[in-house]
Design a protein that fits this description.
The structure is a single chain. This protein is an alpha/beta fold and 461 residues long. The chain is built from 13 helices and 15 strands. Strands 4-10-9-8-7-5-6 form a 7-stranded mixed sheet, with helices on both faces. A hairpin with a 2-residue loop joins strand 14 and strand 15. Helix 3 packs antiparallel against helix 10. It binds pyridoxal-5'-phosphate. Pyridoxal-5'-phosphate binds next to helix 5. GO terms for molecular function: pyridoxal phosphate binding; transaminase activity. This is Taurine---2-oxoglutarate transaminase. Pfam families: Aminotran_3 (PF00202). It comes from Williamsia sterculiae.
Length: 461
């Protein structure tokens, strides 16, 4: 059985036929007027999305697909949650916009709810419009706080598409944007499956990766380094869970050398890993924590930086030189208040944790047993990756680093034709459904994935 559904109406009551007509017009106008992210404009054919509900989206043909991508890993509370929609509608009727210099009830309440959930003394919240600008501001705060300029980040990371954020990024999307004088230095993080440190165990990988980072810091000059920016669990770069002790070791290095530790939780935060923030998994408190996506599931653009007391104090009597017209926008923060409250009331984070441990993890492990194209399964919560390979012994990726491949394209096409919307990147399929996904939905999705991996297996030499 697959999840393909040919229903007569969409969740909002439109007929499938009306939705098809709308989608055809949208496609036509899109190709004429919309300039797309990360794409060769003449080579793309964007799939239409006309409606969504819970864990599902409807495409331009009115077909229902199970969303194993959460769009761009942001709809943590699921699609079209009624409490979030109602909150946005109420706020629109009350106050649609308010400039950041004024105090406002929903901004204050969102800040309180976030500060209550971030670890340690990260109690001040600076709101941005998304994740990239959150990282831009975190780096600016760290530079002003320390009086230093250099920033260290890991290869195999993504921190956003704006200028500083794309230069922080370690994955190949940086290459065409790297202007060489950003002050960013990259290092290797732990990744046992593709260890740069010739490690065979998690303990070795952890110790050697920390030793490497220590050496990079000493070679670059500790007194020149403002911050280390680290995705707690690197997301688009491959969902690599850090070995036990690594993040604690990074914290210790930052303390030893007076470096600001910035945890990028834009993708890993707000329930994705089965905890409110992924740093909670290891009990580490960074100096700055950036968030976006899950904070309000992307219903209205919002991101931000949670700031420690010490860094906030830097700006007690010295103006912070930065701001955004829409910082703490009322529609976005009203959506955040409703999202966080509903997530707490409905135990959405607990659901993510249980589904990951009881259904997704074991289900993917079974698929790995059956499909030789699966080299490794890793993840937690609703944050999982299947690493696809041409050869399990050599671990040669099914698609080379920084490129796509026919094999991967075929796997993705098989998922879609089976009624599943996956998140694919280079040689990986990420299983990243909403945190609200049910066990039954996960099982449906794994059935489609099973068939799609058979297509992947057929590409093996
Ligand atoms: N940081 C991480 C870890 C991300 O995954 C992303 C986006 O995927 C960003 C930053 C950038 O966020 P945005 O696209 O909202 O600017």
């Amino acid at each position: 059985m697959t999840t393909i559904d040919h229903l007569d109406t969409l969740p909002d009551g439109r007929s499938v036929e009306d939705a098809r007509v709308e989608a055809a017009r949208a496609y036509d106008l899109d190709r004429r007027h919309v300039f797309h992210s990360w794409s060769a404009q003449a080579e793309i054919s964007p799939m239409g999305i006309t409606a969504s509900a819970g864990s599902y989206v409807w495409d331009g043909d009115g077909r229902r697909l199970l969303d194993f991508s959460s769009m761009l890993v942001n709809t943590n509370i699921g699609h079209q949650h009624p409490r979030v929609i109602a909150a946005i509608q109420r706020q629109a009727a009350k106050l649609c916009t308010v400039a950041p210099q004024y105090a406002n009830d929903v901004r204050s309440e969102a800040a309180r709810l976030i500060a209550e959930r971030t670890p340690g003394d990260l109690d001040k919240i600076f709101f941005t419009n998304g994740g990239a600008d959150a990282n831009e501001h975190a780096v600016r705060m760290a530079r002003l706080h320390t009086g230093r300029r250099k920033v260290l980040t890991r290869y195999r990371s993504y921190h956003g598409g704006t200028d500083t954020a794309i230069n922080l990024t370690g994955d190949p999307r940086r290459w065409p944007n790297d202007h060489g004088d950003s002050g960013v230095v990259h290092f290797f993080g732990p990744f046992l499956y593709r260890s740069r440190f010739h490690a065979e165990t998690e303990e070795q990988e952890c110790a050697r990766a920390l030793d490497h980072l220590d050496e990079v810091i000493r070679m670059e000059g500790p007194s020149t380094i403002a911050a280390i920016v680290l995705e707690t669990i690197p997301g688009t770069a491959g969902i690599m869970i850090p070995p036990p002790g690594y993040l604690r070791g990074v914290r210790e290095l930052c303390d030893r050398y007076g470096i600001v530790y910035i945890a990028d939780e834009v993708m890993a935060g707000f329930g994705r890993s089965g905890t409110w923030f992924s740093v909670d998994l290891v009990g580490v408190t960074p100096d700055l924590l950036t968030f976006a996506k899950g904070v309000n599931s992307g219903y209205v653009p919002l991101g931000g930086v949670a700031i420690s007391a010490a860094i906030a104090a830097t700006f007690d009597h010295r103006p912070y030189p930065g701001g955004l017209t829409y910082s703490g926008h009322p529609l976005a923060t009203a959506a955040a208040v409703a999202t966080i409250t509903a997530m707490a009331d409905e135990d959405v984070v607990g659901n993510a944790s249980r589904i990951g441990a009881e259904v997704i993890g074991p289900g993917l492990a079974e698929l790995a047993d059956r499909h030789p194209s699966v080299g490794e399964v890793r993840g937690c919560g609703v944050f999982w990756a299947l690493e696809l390979v041409r050869d399990r012994t050599t671990r040669e990726p099914l698609a080379p680093y920084g490129a796509s491949s026919a094999a991967m394209n075929d796997v993705v096409a098989a998922c879609r034709s089976g009624g599943l919307l996956p998140f694919a990147n280079v040689n990986r399929i990420h299983v990243v459904p909403p945190c609200t996904v049910t066990a039954e939905e996960v099982r449906e999705g794994l059935t489609v994935l099973d068939a799609a991996l058979t297509v992947g297996d057929a590409h093996l030499p």
